[in-house]
């Protein structure tokens, strides 16, 4: 495959290159793309140096697949140009997620919806992916009615500038602020921009995207998204009410058997998911699994995953792998590496 990584110099872009290399994605030609600011910069992939190019040059090169992690505006402007040139775009931004003509895909759940006609495919929000990975098997068995989620999100979810802000604060140096307030020793109930209804855009992504991925509008999600000074992954406290009653041992068993999900749940040994543990891993970790004693058929759990991996890069590469395995993408180039 001739592959373009758009946003290669960013937080997600860097992990994308690692994940492509680790999974040995078959690449005959790699195009590393970023803004005009970065054109000419050198980046390394599998010990080989590549020069960063601009978007127009990348479209002209007609890659088979372009994986975008360069913000919503860039995707809105450029994904259609790649698609027109015959490229299949997998987009990490929120630009196309709720577009009814675009698929919103978590491969373990709904990759079977993909066809060769899909030229722009949306990767869900990082907080959404980890939540639906754990909810999907439970929804199938017990049918969800309502989910209440509070997130504890890593600064890496905001990008390079936010990680730098936290590092500057720790080092006691002045620098550019990604957030309106200090993030060290703080918790900001503010992820992405505020909307008319008083919720943030991140909270509305958590409310709407799961219905589209699970292809079911009969359940609802109410979210509060909070930024905290961690770097390894996002955590979520999830309270879910089902139509049917459940057995806790069966819930643990269902989650344990779900590919991509690892149960870490033993209060006797202080075993529970944490960002420090999830960091650098592809799985979604679930623990603190317990019955909500205040309401019928209701479960509490704690879900943690590395937002840059399953929340972004790994999910996107899994989509690319699925397209390739199922011959849903044009393969115009001979594989040489
Ligand atoms: N961080 C996460 O956990 C996460 C998870 C899921 C999805 N996402 C999404 O992934 C995207 C990137 O996030 P990030 O955290 O990696 O941000 P980031 O660290 O700020 O990186 C942004 C990347 O986009 C490039 N870019 C910005 N403006 C561009 C333009 N006009 N044309 C071409 N390239 C441009 C940047 O290039 P320069 O270096 O040249 O500026 C950089 O490579 C966002 O859409 C975000 O919503 C992020």
Automatic annotation (TrEMBL):
It is an enzyme of class 1 (oxidoreductase). Pathway: Amino-acid biosynthesis; L-methionine biosynthesis via de novo pathway; L-homoserine from L-aspartate: step 2/3; Amino-acid biosynthesis; L-lysine biosynthesis via DAP pathway; (S)-tetrahydrodipicolinate from L-aspartate: step 2/4; Amino-acid biosynthesis; L-threonine biosynthesis; L-threonine from L-aspartate: step 2/5. It catalyses: L-aspartate 4-semialdehyde + phosphate + NADP(+) = 4-phospho-L-aspartate + NADPH + H(+). GO terms for molecular function: aspartate-semialdehyde dehydrogenase activity; NAD binding; NADP binding; protein dimerization activity. Phosphate binds at residue 97. Its EC number is 1.2.1.11. It comes from the Bacteria. GO terms for biological process: 'de novo' L-methionine biosynthetic process; diaminopimelate biosynthetic process; isoleucine biosynthetic process; lysine biosynthetic process via diaminopimelate; threonine biosynthetic process. Signal peptide: none annotated. Keywords: Amino-acid biosynthesis, Diaminopimelate biosynthesis, Lysine biosynthesis, Methionine biosynthesis, NADP, Oxidoreductase, Threonine biosynthesis. Residues 2-117 form the Semialdehyde dehydrogenase NAD-binding domain. The active site is at residues 126, 234. Catalyzes the NADPH-dependent formation of L-aspartate-semialdehyde (L-ASA) by the reductive dephosphorylation of L-aspartyl-4-phosphate. Belongs to the aspartate-semialdehyde dehydrogenase family. HAMAP family: ASADH. This is Aspartate-semialdehyde dehydrogenase.
């Amino acid at each position: 495959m001739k592959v373009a990584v758009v946003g290669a110099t960013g937080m997600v872009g860097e992990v994308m290159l690692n994940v492509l290399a680790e999974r040995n994605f078959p690449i005959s030609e790699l195009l590393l793309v970023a803004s005009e600011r970065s054109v000419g910069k050198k980046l390394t992939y599998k010990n080989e140096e590549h020069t960063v190019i601009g978007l127009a040059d990348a479209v002209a090169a007609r890659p088979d697949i372009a994986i975008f992690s360069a913000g919503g505006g860039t995707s809105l402007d450029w994904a259609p140009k790649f698609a027109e040139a015959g490229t299949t775009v997998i987009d990490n931004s929120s630009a196309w997620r709720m577009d009814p003509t675009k698929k919103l895909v978590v491969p373990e759940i709904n990759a079977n919806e993909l066809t060769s006609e899909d030229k722009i495919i949306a990767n869900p929000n990082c907080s959404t992916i980890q939540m639906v990975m754990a909810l999907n098997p439970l929804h199938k068995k017990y049918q969800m009615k309502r989910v209440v989620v509070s997130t504890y999100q890593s600064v890496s979810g905001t990008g390079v500038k936010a990680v730098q802000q936290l590092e500057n604060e720790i080092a006691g140096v002045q620098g550019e602020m990604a957030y309106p307030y200090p993030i060290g020793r703080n918790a900001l109930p503010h992820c992405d921009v505020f909307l008319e209804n008083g919720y943030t855009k991140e909270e509305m992504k958590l409310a709407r995207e799961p219905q589209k991925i699970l292809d079911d509008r009969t359940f609802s999600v109410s979210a509060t998204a909070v930024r905290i000074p961690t770097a390894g992954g996002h955590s979520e406290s999830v309270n879910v009410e089902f139509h049917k009653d459940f057995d806790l041992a069966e819930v643990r068993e269902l989650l344990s058997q779900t590919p991509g999900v690892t149960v870490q749940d033993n209060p006797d040994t202080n075993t529970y998911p944490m960002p420090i543990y999830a960091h650098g891993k592809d799985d979604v970790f679930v623990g603190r699994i317990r019955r909500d004693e205040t309401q019928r058929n209701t479960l509490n759990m704690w879900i943690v995953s590395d937002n840059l991996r399953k929340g972004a890069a790994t999910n996107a590469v899994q989509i690319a792998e699925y397209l390739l395995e199922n011959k849903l993408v044009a393969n115009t180039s001979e594989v040489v590496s």
